Amino acid sequence: MPGQRVFLHSRTLPVRMVAPSLKLQDLIEEIRGAKTQAQEREVIQKECAHIRASFRDGDPVHRHRQLAKLLYVHMLGYPAHFGQMECLKLIASSRFTDKRVGYLGAMLLLDERHDAHLLITNSIKNDLSQGIQPVQGLALCTLSTMGSAEMCRDLAPEVEKLLLQPSPYVRKKAILTAVHMIRKVPELSSVFLPPCVHLLHERHHGILLGTITLITELCERSPAALKHFRKVVPQLVQILRTLVTTGYSTEHSISGVSDPFLQVQILRLLRILGRNHEESSETMNDLLAQVATNTDTSRNAGNAVLFETVLTIMDIHSAAGLRVLAVNILGRFLLNSDRNIRYVALTSLLRLVQSDHSAVQRHRPTVVDCLQETDASLSRRALELSLALVNSSNVRAMMQELQAFLESCPPDLRADCASGILLAAERFAPTKRWHIDTILHVLTTAGTHVRDDAVANLTQLIGGAQELHAYSVRRLYNALAEDISQQPLVQVAAWCIGEYGDLLLEGNCEEIEPLQVDEEEVLALLEKVLQSHMSLPATRGYALTALMKLSTRLQGDNNRIRQVVSIYRSCLDVELQQRAVEYDTLFRKYDHMRAAILEKMPLVERDGPQADEEAKQSKEAAQLSEAAPAPTESQASQLLDLLDLLDRASGDAQHPPPLDPSPGGALVYLLDLPCAPPPPAPIPDLKVFEREGVQLNLSFIRPPENPALLLITITATNSSEGDVTNFICQAAVPKSLQLQLQAPSGNTVPARGGLPITQLFRILNPNKVSFRSSPKARPRDSRSHGC
């Protein structure tokens, strides 16, 4: 039937209505009204399809509206790269409404990674040449935001012309664009030098602030500009003095402080101009004292000006009284309720502690109080500064404060605090007993957080203090009886009990209260360490060795020790099993040699009369070797085999060097075995870097009283025509070594062979680990270096 055919036709071909494109305001409302992320994506996909269709149709009237919606979609994080070419079309348009959206789209969608950004260079050049100020402002903003190095080189002449335009609006934006160009292409500095001198006389606030920023960038990147602008230091001083006394204008004052932004920028520029220049520093000394004393500290704006003043005082050749004033200002900052101000004060004092140590020492109680801060960053900075303030005169008082802090500090600070206490105690210990007590307290409080070499350092210290052997073993025995969870403490205690267990049983130590200890208690304590689930395999090795050594120091029967040793012959740990097998072999086969093999370790330190006696013995041995007959080749071979017996027991031991074929060589080798090693030869100076006139030299000193310490002095010189700024020297060492970096004498290496920069590295190598230095230098920019 006809009616039925019409009905079927209407169902087969339904009519679909296409939704019209939304306006920007309607699109924003619909996206915000989406209840789920899926609904939001659906709305954006539909609208992006309309925008693509409009771009394909080439609608010039509504192109800027479509691009405005696409920019909003881009701000939400959705892809909008297909609108890049539309930005170029709008920028080339003659209508201001199109240019405004086109330049905004170029700033958001284009950057140096896209080649399309180079296509707008001619459009920007044309717009800068026009006399329409809004269009010039748009072009300058775009150039200062996404201008590449190629664009900056091409458009620098146009920007230079706009710096002298009568309109303050255009000049201000041209100055900011020039700052971007200098950062991108430092060699353009010569283009902008002449206009800056004229712009300093401007009274417009925005122009003056932008000019100070431009001069700062020029001085940081060009030595010629730095030399050129040192002539305007009196003018800058006068501008800042006017700001401090009369003010610039009331509309730019903040909390009663006259134009703090302009003051901070001028102070920063003065710091650059006065660095390493005596005449400029002398010109600004009086002004800096005036700013430091007249600025209101009750507001944050005043604190910002004061902090910049302190940095300027410390960076130039200022008078001694002015530097003390700067340190006192930082001391007042420590009492401020604002955590940010306290943090910058601690950071600045940490930089000054090397150059003005006595002035910073006056604020030591306040710094120590900052250790109790709840803020982790503040307490960490306070800990670093407290450790830097430790010296030989205050080491006892500071160690008490730091040990008290160690007991209550957060877990993430315990490792740094324990390591700092150990290093400070090693440097400034007044007596060996105090040094031992300090290390024992650290091991008892935070033994699991100390460095790996703490055990070796303490055993070396105890072994070298013969008069404190009885005292040390009793202290360690008491600490071990109270707590066996601190593994470094258990290891040191086990070593000490094994070495000096006979002194522990004698009980004739006068420094501490008498303690009666019998053999069974000592053995039971070591067995407890062996059986504890908290003991590491290395700790069990210390305890097993201690039991073995006690077999020669105790008067009773050794059956109990032999039973314990035999148990660990089947231990799963290979190292512990090997030790037990070797010790059991000593009992069964070489019992007559056990007492000689397990003798006490020799003293580590070789000072005083003992060293003289050993030197005398070495001299006598050398005299005997001259008259001794040379052994035959077979005898020399047997001697090597005999000396190699002990090496075969430990697979990683080094073989003895080959015998000297000269007469008496083998006898010299034998006689030299128990003698003191010869003093290490001096290390020659080393040149590690030389490029573009910058040279780094290393000089080495090994103090005779501490052979494990190596002092490395780094000297940086500059024979080029320009200063090297932002010079940083860093170093890293393995965990077995301890490194301390002293503050450098400056961060700018003067040109033409000026005063060099020196920095001291202290490397402590208690385990005598061989290491080699690998210096690397990385230039950060054209005239700044880091090594």
From TrEMBL:
Compositionally biased region (Basic and acidic residues): 604-619
One annotated Gene Ontology cellular component of this protein: AP-1 adaptor complex
Disordered as annotated region, ranges: 604-633
Top-level taxon of the source organism: Eukaryota
Listed GO biological process terms: intracellular protein transport; vesicle-mediated transport
Keyword field: Cytoplasmic vesicle, Golgi apparatus, Membrane, Protein transport, Transport
Record-annotated membrane-spanning stretches: none
Membrane topology reported for the UniProt record: Peripheral membrane protein
Protein transport in keyword set: yes
Subcellular location: Cytoplasmic vesicle membrane; Endomembrane system; Golgi apparatus
Keyword Zinc-finger assigned: no
GAE domain span: 681-787
A Pfam family assignment: Alpha_adaptinC2
Family: Belongs to the adaptor complexes large subunit family.
Entry protein name: AP-1 complex subunit gamma
